[in-house]
Specification:
two-stranded antiparallel sheet, 2 domains
């Protein structure tokens, strides 16, 4: 029986030693993992800060250049080199196109109220499928504005469900 106790104690020691070795191995891996994780996070933070700085710098330069191009376009207008339509002004160069979309009024639709108006007064502008839809582009052509800013149809009726919204002037440079 003495022999069994000795073997048992020897096996216990070996198991304890093996468990200790595994725990030390895990501890070592954990230390390496934490060190690498902190290093990687520091690099991520560094590059994120660099990216933020570059983005800020880019946005500032973009605004400055766009303002300079807008001012140059004013000179270009006087020289007659700006192409102008009802809605925009455009100057094409080899490197890109400067486009100034003019401010305007845009019609805003309340679809439900507008649909009721059309059903009562202009049913010919409603297409009925499984779902009713408005022939907006066709109907819009016969609209006009009163001096007070109301939208009226070709019969002079105020159109319910439509209102005006100011759109801001928009400027962009399109690179080629």
């Amino acid at each position: 029986m003495n022999q069994l106790n000795e073997n048992y104690d020897l096996n216990t020691v070996n198991v304890t030693l093996e468990v200790e070795n595994r725990i030390e191995e895990l501890k070592s891996f954990n230390e390496t993992y934490m060190r690498l994780k902190l290093t990687a996070q520091a690099k991520i933070d560094y590059y994120q800060n660099k990216l933020d700085e570059l983005t800020k710098d880019f946005e500032e330069k973009k605004v400055r250049i766009e303002n300079e191009v807008k001012n140059l376009m004013l000179i270009g207008e006087k020289q007659g080199i700006i192409k102008e339509t009802k809605t925009l002004k455009k100057l094409e160069t080899i490197s890109g196109v400067a486009v100034l979309t003019k401010s305007s009024k845009t019609i805003v639709k309340d679809d439900n109220e507008f649909m009721i108006f059309l059903q009562k007064n202009h049913p010919n502008f409603i297409e009925t499928k499984e779902v009713s839809s408005i022939k907006w582009m066709e109907f819009k052509k016969q609209l006009s504005l009163t001096e007070s800013g109301k939208i009226i149809d070709s019969d002079g009726q105020i159109v319910d469900g439509l209102s005006l919204k100011d759109t801001q002037e928009k400027f962009e440079i399109k690179l080629k």
